[in-house]
Design a protein that fits this description.
It contains 15 helices and 13 strands. It folds into 2 domains: about 15-185 and about 385-405, Rossmann fold, CATH 3.40.50; about 195-385, Rossmann fold (3-Layer(aba) Sandwich), CATH 3.40.50.2000. It has helices at about 30-45, 80-95, 125, 135-155, 160-170, 195-205, 240-250, 270, 275-280, 300-305, 320-325, 340-345, 355-365, 370-385, 390-410, and strands spanning about 15-20, 50-55, 70-75, 100, 115-120, 155-160, 180, 215, 260-265, 285-290, 305-310, 330-335, 350.
Length: about 400
């Protein structure tokens, strides 16, 4: 599906009451960004329907206090299973909802109204090696059992890429007719930053290299079930990138051919990539790990980067790909999962397990100025094809479809 190609179904004759399960609305990762931007665009374009935002913490309330058609309801609860399966269904019944939406794969199994669910990934089937130890195996088994069940109970199933939709058909048995893609997009603030003072300020704030650098944007959380608590998630492929980067630096050699430094952003990275670990592959002085970066500073960092290195083993979308492209930052990403779909021919694709190929790709973007300029132009055009407004229209269309299905069922 081409981004923005979704069409609205006919608007219902009456206003709908639409419930949104927003316990993850404050998350700092891609899922949190996704639901915040989607809600912002949805509320901006739709003043007709009534929305009920369900939070699980009082501290989350107030985000949409200025939206006249949004009612915020705190359903306090720390246990996700209890919140999903008992507390929210009861609250939804009290609110007389026409349809309920959750963007984080789980839904009430006994809801009082039709439910639309957004699935986030199928790595439980394609990459069981991500899940180690007793806790990891329990998580793996739970999701393999429950994701197909949630999809069966949902009226509509949304994905954030066509690739993920294909995977759900293959692994979870979801009928293709039940699926719809709702893409992510870059925030409007993601564009090339031309103000030198802003770039200098961000560079100093995070002690970044003064020269253009290769950039990684990763999650720093540990592998589920890892006893040491010091392991990186294998999804983002940091260890392979370090090995490829070390090879690239050794091969660069010669006067005037110094390779750019490497910057790795993400929570917990500094604790899990000590100088001793980095030294196994490359000179630690060439690798910078500033830790967590404020969202508003990311456009400047993408602008300063020579390229984004994002060869993930698995992505259902890969938001940093689009964010980097929107800022004119060339991208190296994977041949696997949704990365090629999102890149759309505007990035260098590498096998995530191919160290030599990854090193060669880094060398190309490090020293080929003509290639970098070509990738910048193609990336900016590709990023512009994704739109939160288009995605919000597609979501509203799916919510309306589900609500009508519920009305028809009640009539029958």
């Amino acid at each position: 599906m081409t981004p923005g190609s979704g069409t609205l179904t006919e608007t219902p004759t009456r206003s709908l009451r639409i419930g949104l399960m927003l316990r993850a609305v404050d998350d700092v990762d891609g899922q949190g960004i996704y639901i915040r931007k989607l809600c912002d665009a949805l509320f901006e374009m739709d003043a007709t329907n009534q929305y009920v935002a369900f939070y699980n913490d009082a501290g989350q309330a107030g985000r949409y206090r200025d939206r006249r058609n949004v009612r915020e309801v705190v359903v306090a609860g720390r246990k996700k299973l209890l919140w999903d399966q008992v507390q929210v269904p009861l609250a939804a019944r009290r609110e007389h909802l026409d349809v309920l939406f959750h963007h984080k794969f789980s839904i009430p199994l006994l809801p009082p109204c039709p439910v639309v669910v957004q699935q986030r990934g199928t790595e439980y089937w394609s990459h069981p090696d991500f899940y180690v130890g007793a806790a990891g195996r329990m998580d793996l088994l739970y999701n393999r059992a429950m994701i197909p069940l949630y999809c069966r109970r949902a009226t509509r199933v949304l994905t954030n890429s066509d690739t993920l939709g294909d995977e759900l058909v293959r692994h979870a048995g979801v009928p293709r007719s039940k699926l719809r893609t709702v893409y992510a997009a870059a925030d409007e603030s993601f564009r090339p930053i031309t103000d030198a003072a802003t770039l200098t300020q961000v560079q100093k704030r995070y002690a970044l290299p003064a020269t253009p650098f290769l950039l990684m944007v990763v999650k720093g959380h540990q592998v589920l079930g890892q006893a040491s608590g010091k392991a990186l998630t294998p999804r983002k492929n940091v260890e392979v990138v370090l090995e490829a980067y070390g090879r690239m630096r050794r091969d660069a050699g010669g006067p005037g051919t110094a390779a750019p430094p490497l910057v790795i952003l993400g929570l917990g990275i500094a604790e899990r990539l000590s100088p001793a670990v980095i030294a196994e592959q490359v000179d630690p002085a060439t690798v910078f790990i500033p830790g967590f970066v404020e969202f508003g500073d990311m456009p400047a960092i993408y602008t300063m980067a020579r390229a984004l290195v994002f060869p993930s083993r698995y992505e259902s979308f890969g938001l940093p790909i689009v964010e980097a492209m929107a800022c004119g930052c060339p991208v190296i990403t994977s041949t696997t999962s949704a990365c090629p779909e999102v890149a759309g021919g505007a990035a260098i694709l590498v096998d995530p397990d191919d160290v030599a190929g990854m090193a060669a790709a880094m060398q190309r973007v490090s020293f080929d100025d003509a290639l970098v300029e070509e990738l910048r132009g193609r990336g900016i055009r590709r990023a512009a094809s994704f739109s939160w407004a288009d995605s919000a229209r597609t979501l509203l269309s799916e919510l309306q479809t589900a609500a009508r299905a519920g009305t028809g069922a009640r009539a029958r």
